[in-house]
Specification:
By secondary structure, this protein is α/β, with parallel strands linked by helices. The protein has a domain of 75 residues. It is built from ten helices and ten strands. Strands 6-7-8-3-9-10 form a six-stranded mixed beta sheet, sandwiched between helices. A hairpin with a 4-residue loop joins strand 1 and strand 2. Helix 4 runs antiparallel to helix 5 and helix 7 packs across helix 10. The N and C termini lie far apart (47 Å).
């Protein structure tokens, strides 16, 4: 039994004038503790699939099971981290990171202490009473990750969470997120346009073809890369050849001009 089972998912967006199929015949399984990246050209349905897995959109067809249970019967099991941190600007960092616990009625002395301790582990000691505007972009994203992890979700969804950051901060945060997920044994799915990021962070990279989105190819990362931090994986001798392989496959999916 797979931790996450996506079975024959199709999705079509309907308007009064048209019907646009975003996803077709998506079947994939994700094991517990695995980190999987969704990669592909714009318009291949990556974010649509992420939204379906998160339960934000109901697919036109197909089923998604988390620990063999339908999403409709699951609460507080899926965490979402986005490109923007979406911290409330008028709330302190402490209030922001406890918000998920409060909304899910999980907030108590034990969970509050655990969230504040996680904030310290993220290198954010002493900023509990500060407002988001007083922090850098990277610090805000770390706080957003704490807020997401505080509710102890079984599955973490990452929708291009590093793309708005400068390159140095992005690399540091990739390492931090990867280490944190490993420490807590979390299962994660990352949507990204960055081939290098997908290779460095993932156990598997799923490449989608567009119009409608289908699984084109799945790349299993070699064991020697999986054991490294994302930063060190980028410097490994195997990284370049994997990058070139995925680049060529991705390039083959891009529409050609006549």
């Amino acid at each position: 039994m797979s931790f996450l089972a996506i079975k024959d998912v199709h999705h079509t967006y309907f308007t009064k004038a048209s019907a646009t199929t975003a996803l077709s015949e998506i079947t994939i399984q994700v094991e517990e503790g695995e980190f999987v990246s969704f990669l592909g050209p714009s318009g291949c349905g990556k974010t649509t699939l992420l939204s379906i897995i998160a339960g934000l959109i109901k697919p036109t067809q197909g089923t998604i099971l988390l620990e063999n249970k339908p999403l409709s019967g699951i609460k507080n099991q899926i965490g979402y981290m986005l490109q923007q941190d979406y911290l409330f600007p008028w709330k302190t960092i402490e209030e922001n990171i406890l918000l998920g616990l409060k909304l899910s009625k999980q907030l108590n002395d034990t969970t509050k202490l655990a969230a504040l301790d996680l904030l310290k582990q993220m290198g954010l000691s002493g900023i509990e009473k500060q407002l988001p505007k007083q922090l850098s972009g990277g610090m805000r994203q770390r706080a957003a990750l704490v807020r997401t992890l505080a509710t102890e979700p079984k599955l973490l969804m990452l929708d291009e969470p590093f793309s708005a950051l400068d390159y140095q901060t992005k690399l540091k945060l990739e390492d931090l997120v990867s280490k944190t997920l490993d420490t807590f044994g979390k299962t994660a799915i990352l949507v990204t346009h960055d081939i290098g990021e997908a290779i460095a962070m993932s156990d598997r990279v799923v490449l989608f073809s567009p119009s409608p989105g289908r699984i084109h190819k799945v790349f299993e990362m070699p064991g020697e890369l999986k054991q490294l931090s994302p930063f060190n994986a980028r410097n490994h001798e195997a990284f370049s050849s994997i990058f070139q392989t995925i680049w060529k496959e991705l390039d083959s999916l891009e529409p050609r001009e006549e």
